[in-house]
Amino acid sequence: MNIMLFHSTYGLRPAVRAAADRLRAAGHEVWTPDLFEGRTFDTVEEGMACKDEIGKEELLKRAVLAAAPYSERGLVYAGFSLGASIAQNLALGDDKARGLLLLHGTSDIAPNATAEELPVQLHVAEPDPFETDDWLSAWYLRMRRIGADVEVYRYAGAGHLYTDPDLPDYDEEAAEATWRVALGFLDSL
């Protein structure tokens, strides 16, 4: 599988590179574009300030430019938190997308979006302050309505970015369970 993996609001940190290496070890080709142009952050607040400074449109433009050379191959879009939001936007706009793997995040769904039979897998903490139950229910129903084949996995007691071993949210058991399920999902595409 060809996977475009987007980083979180913390930037392209070691955990994202490690995730890409894990995916490569499972036989996938993976790209990890740096949407923050080398900047990484120690706090969510610093990362959000950078995201706001760059702006949503510019971030999406950078993501599209990063994916464009590979999109003809049929990409699986994937991402962590903010990166998941970006991945979702790109996957729903790419009729050649092979799948969508969302880790710790989702995004609004454009009114004209379609995702006919697009395989989608979401992994998220329960509860998650950024992905509330009401939001996730509405998101799930909307994704199904536009044609996506959606699976949602919740991890009780895990922190928001529980797959990043360098952050306080890290939960080894939830992270390993996520990777087991996600790798199976990717193998099924």
From TrEMBL:
It comes from the Bacteria. The keyword Hydrolase applies. The keyword Iron does not apply. Pfam families: DLH. Residues 3-187 form the Dienelactone hydrolase domain. InterPro entries: AB_hydrolase_fold, Dienelactn_hydro, Dienelactone_hydrolase-like. Keywords: Hydrolase. GO terms for molecular function: hydrolase activity. PANTHER family: ALPHA_BETA-HYDROLASES SUPERFAMILY PROTEIN (PTHR46623:SF6), CARBOXYMETHYLENEBUTENOLIDASE-RELATED (PTHR46623). This is Dienelactone hydrolase. It comes from Streptomyces echinoruber.
